[in-house]
Amino acid sequence: MNKNLSQHEQDIVAQSSSWSRRDVLRAGGAAALAGIGGSLAASNAWSAGAPHKVTFAWSAIAFCLSPVVVAQEKGYFEKNGLDVELLNWGGSTDQLLEALATGKADVGVGLIHRWLKPLEAGFDVKVIGAAHGGCLRLVGVKDAGVNDWKQLKGKTIGVSDLNSPAKNFFAIHLAKRGVNIDKDVEWRVYPADLLDVAAKKGEIQAIADGDPNVYLIEKRNQGVFTELGNSGTGEYKDKICCITGARGDFVRNNKPAAAAVVRSIIQASEFVAENPNEAAKLYAKYSPKVPVEDLRKLLTDLTYHNHPTGAPLRAEVEYFARDFHTAGVLKKSTDPVRFANHVTYDVLS
């Protein structure tokens, strides 16, 4: 047992082996986090000095990234020895990863469905954590006779872009179920806020997109759509969705800071899970068009207790890499196992 800890902290660590991840995080503090693999002594020694400045790139329009806001507003970054500057990134995922790789930002968050292909291209960015699961949905137009995914053959699916996370995810989902995603269905691009208009015109018979957009579309058109797929249910219900990544040299040369970022996001994600109403209020200033009560409902639907690190995180990246490889998104020459080993990094060990 670490002699630098108080007796109370030592008792917490001693008990932690029989706790779930959720119990450990609820206990709070660096001592409790040591129970999930954090290097406690090094973390305490590092965080005792001046806060480490970190630039954190994120998309303020993505409600599912509310743990980033919570970590800043509730002081989780500060408690973990960080001075974080939030960089609202409005560019593409490729540009975000390039910003990380070239030092314009130290860490960032985004959908794993958008990150894997660019990471295959060789960006020196490592996946170090995850924030949540869920948030991608596929809905069918009832009057068009699409009430089940099996009825999608010969139909047109509306998406916001041909490389959107929802398009990639549900293309894989359908391919695994025997649907030829190039011949059996057509994918057609529309601005996200006009997808329901296209459905009303009969130009598309299904929509693949993320919340809050799908949620708001259903709210505007009650009874028109039925859910065909959801990344937070079925075989994916315990899988990650948004991941935390960091610049390669930042992870290699400043592992304690990277670990502090991961701990902060885990703690903030747990806060969101336990306090969706307060989290919605904190995030509301970034999404003024969505009522707080709708944000609370949306946050409740996501799996904010889902944030693996270390070997479990590497296994999840490999799982998605295999799916992407099978669907032809990743190159035939890419080995999912080697790819996952290369792009993930355990900062809490």
Question: What this model shows, in words?
Answer:
This protein has 349 residues and is an alpha/beta fold. Helix content is 44%, strand content 17%. It contains 17 helices and ten strands. The protein has helices at residues 7-16, 21-27, 29-34, 40-47, 66-73, 76-79, 93-101, 112-120, 165-175, 195-200, 213-220, 248-253, 255-274, 276-283, 292-301, 310-326, 336-343, and strands at 52-58, 82-88, 107-111, 125-132, 136-141, 156-159, 186-189, 206-210, 225-230, 242-247. The longest helix is centred in the last third of the chain and has 20 residues, at 255-274.
The run of helices and strands is: HHHHEHHEHEHEEEHEHEHEEHHHHHH
How confident overall, as mean pLDDT? Answer: 83
What does the main sheet amount to? Answer: 5 strands, mixed
Q: Percent of residues in beta strands?
A: 15-25%
Trace the largest sheet across and list its strands.
2-1-3-10-4
Q: Helical region count?
A: 17
Shape: globular
What is the C-alpha radius of gyration, as a whole number of Å? 21 Å
* Structural class label: alpha/beta
Whole-Å distance between the termini?
Answer: 16 Å
Total number of strands: 10
What is the helix content? 40-55%
Oligomer: single chain
Low-confidence stretches: 1-45
